[in-house]
Amino acid sequence: MKRWMAAIPVGALVLFAVLAGYQLSHPEKAEFERISRAAPEFDFARLDGEGTIRFAPPPGGQNVVVNLFASWCAPCEAEHPKLMDLGAAWPGRVYGVLYKDTAANGRKFLDEMGNPYADIAMDPDGQGGLDFGLTGVPETFVISADGEILLHINRPLDEAGVKRVSEALEAPRS
């Protein structure tokens, strides 16, 4: 009887390992988060140095994309072609936030890679990113015309991410 009871913790450990392995190998469910909470009421300085930009509510009175990126971020460079596609498909509705970086480095990055953004905000100390709910760059948010975060993608954009962003941009005003 004692040997049988010793197998219970081992069985539980094996079951836990199988479940953990499954979750690690199927991360899609955590990569796209459909949420509905207010965008941060934060005034970001513009990269061009002229005034500020705010995303609650966003400029233009329509749903917009806000992509947090940095020149020092290799995944940001990898996702950049997808942002160029989004910028071409949705002119004037894709915004960038340069996260914990310098204006000079951000400009150099965009000069080399292309600029998909209608406007670019600066977040040198990272507080704006924290207010968004950023876990690490690059991350992309879709903000409704009313200033609600509709979608949060916490990884570099790929084809599936671009599709989700486009669907959220087409969402009717609430």
Structural overview:
Helix content is 42%, strand content 23%. It is of the alpha+beta class. It has a single domain, classed as 3-Layer(aba) Sandwich (Glutaredoxin). The chain has an 8-stranded mixed β-sheet with strand order 1-8-7-4-5-6-2-3.
- Rg over CA atoms, rounded to whole Å, is 20 Å
Overall form: elongated
Largest sheet features = 8 strands, mixed
What is the fold named in CATH at topology level? Glutaredoxin
The count of DSSP E runs of length 2 or more, i.e. the number of strands, is 8
Adjacency order of strands in the biggest sheet: 1-8-7-4-5-6-2-3
Helix content: 40-55%
In percent, how much strand structure appears in the residues?
15-25%
Backbone structural class? alpha+beta
Q: Would you state the CATH class?
A: Alpha Beta
Superfamily at the CATH H level? Glutaredoxin
Can you tell me the CATH architecture?
Answer: 3-Layer(aba) Sandwich
- On the 0 to 100 scale, the average pLDDT is 88
End-to-end separation in angstroms reads 63 Å
Please give the domain count. 1
Question: What ranges have pLDDT less than 50 throughout 5 or more consecutive residues?
Answer: none
State the order of secondary-structure elements, H for helix, E for strand. Answer: HHEEEEHEHEHEEH
Number of separate helices: 6
